[in-house]
Amino acid sequence: MINKKSIFRENRFDGLFLKGDKIIIRSLRRDDIDKRVAWTKYPDPLYFHYNPPNLGQKEKEEWYFKRINDPNLIYLAIDNHSGQLVGFISLYSIDRLAKSAWMGIFLGYEFTDKGYGTDSISTLAKYFFQEMKYEAMFLDVASHNQRAIRCYLKCGFKFIRTKYNKHDPRSDLDIFGDDRYKDIREYFKKEGDEILCQFDEMILTKDLWLTQNPILTS
Questions:
Q1: Is residue 154 part of a domain?
Q2: Between the N and C ends of the chain, which has fewer C-beta atoms within 10 Å?
Q3: Is residue 218 one of the residues assigned to a domain?
Q4: How many domains does the chain have?
């Protein structure tokens, strides 16, 4: 039987340490879930899915081991230069033959609007294209999340298409009845009892990345 943890180690992401201008991307540690639970919660129900659920000791262990043992997931922590855990960044749906993967990132509420997201993505992209030798990084972003979209465009991502996905069920959100969301209702629709949210699919290829970083070679 193949030991999934050994696959993770062989892929060189155990012990990873990438330093950006504002952040450090590093391997996940067991105490990161405890730090995340202590973050200030997002007050807007639109972003409740970023808030961690109440987890017992067993659930915390499961959260950690699920992320370090999955060979198709690279889940990393983001610290600022003061050593605070500020977020997480991941690569998933990794296609080793096509040399592609999907990227996901989220930051704690108190760590937004500080440039950590842009620096984290740029730092990971450099490693992704130069060291891992991959060719394409994809992401999905909710079309109403203009702050995130601006960040991704700044990092060099380009739009591919729009699509609709189920809205995160962890968010108790009355998108069509709550006037706070009247300006973004155009990005949602109902299909039966389900609420669907419009997403933008985006891509950053190695060629696009090199265009933005001409002093770096492939």
A1: yes
A2: N
A3: no
A4: 1
Tens of pLDDT along the chain (218 residues) come to 334 343 334 344 678 999 999 999 999 999 999 999 999 999 988 888 888 878 899 999 999 999 999 989 999 999 999 999 999 999 999 999 999 999 999 999 999 999 999 999 999 999 999 999 999 999 999 999 999 999 999 999 999 999 999 877 656 678 999 999 999 999 999 888 888 999 999 999 999 999 988 765 54
What is the maximum alpha-carbon separation in the chain? 55
Calpha distance 87→216 (Å, rounded):
27
Half-sphere exposure of 4 (CA within 13 A, CB side): 10
Joined tokens for residue 5: 């943890």
134 is a domain residue: yes
CATH number at residue 122: 3.40.630.30
In a domain, 123, yes or no: yes
